[in-house]
Design brief:
two-stranded parallel sheet; about 280 residues; 10 strands; alpha/beta; 7 helices; Aminopeptidase; six-stranded mixed beta sheet
């Protein structure tokens, strides 16, 4: 099996997002990002839909929008890939947000050529970031809304696995062993990384991280988070997290390609058989 994911292509998508400036929910830059996502997904043969919703936040009701791209396949066997496209109001979010989005767009291009048997849904989520202070009622707005909608329309049981990408482009990337992720899916990811010879990049510290995979886990969907974020003595890593230093120069195509190809390989395996995954 040849792997086609290109880190340079993914990084080019990151550059397009960062050029728009900060992309908080409801902003003109947020709308422009969605337009870019739509055009790229349509070019990859995806069916594109928007999911507008009203998020009840500590600042009041805020309009937000998820954007979904779907590659046709077996509707009873859905593999979902997700990343958040929003940023905090004052930061460019090259790694925190844009890196995962860039990887998803490149995966859409690659998978449109490979045509897996299962249906693949690419979920670009709004409102991952907290509006005020992170907590149970502030943050993860887009993923919670998506899970609720899938459940209400009885589509959630069709999702065999959900993989969330967030902060995967750092030049010194070490993917965190995220402990709330489904053990069965996490094992597949680490096994695939070793098979591809990039296991050293997946030897980050063990940590429990709150991110967009949690609503899927809580709903009973096997889910995993791939991220380089973690807390460390003296502060968080990467150090530029949630600062004005989260800029393009901190990223490299090699990190994006390593993670992207591991996800590509995992998707090939899940496409063959996802029956043994457990939450």
């Amino acid at each position: 099996m040849s792997l086609e994911f290109c880190g340079s292509r993914a990084l080019a998508h990151v550059e397009q997002q960062v050029a728009l400036g900060p992309r908080p929910p409801g902003s003109e830059a947020s709308r422009q990002v969605r337009h870019y996502l739509r055009e790229q997904l349509l070019g990859s043969g995806c069916r594109v839909t928007e999911q507008p919703f009203l998020a009840h936040t500590p600042l009041g009701t805020v309009p937000m929008t998820n954007l979904l791209g779907t590659l046709p396949g077996d509707r009873e066997k859905v593999l979902l890939l997700a990343a958040h496209y929003d940023t905090l109001r004052d930061f460019l979010g090259a790694d925190d947000g844009a890196s995962g989005v860039g990887a998803l767009l490149e995966l859409a291009r690659v998978l449109s050529r490979e045509r897996p048997a299962c249906q693949v849904t690419f979920a670009f989520l709004d409102g991952e970031e907290a509006m005020c202070d992170w907590g149970p009622r502030d943050g993860l707005y887009g993923s919670r809304c998506l899970v609720q909608c899938l459940s209400e329309f009885r589509q959630l049981q069709r999702v065999r696995a959900a993989i969330v990408l967030d902060m995967i482009g750092d030049r010194e990337l070490r993917v965190t062993r995220e402990l709330t992720s489904s053990a069965s899916l996490r094992y597949l990811v680490w096994q695939e990384a070793r098979r591809q010879g990039v296991g050293s990049l997946f030897r980050g510290p063990a940590a429990q991280i709150e991110d967009d995979h949690l609503p899927f886990l809580e709903a009973g969907v096997a889910s995993a988070l791939l991220t380089g974020f973690h807390e460390a003595p003296g502060g968080v890593r990467p150090r530029y997290w949630h600062t004005a230093e989260d800029t393009l120069d901190k990223l490299c195509p090699e990190s994006l390609q390593a993670v992207g190809r591991v996800v590509e390989g995992v998707l090939h395996r899940l496409d063959l058989d996802a029956r043994n995954l457990t939450v």
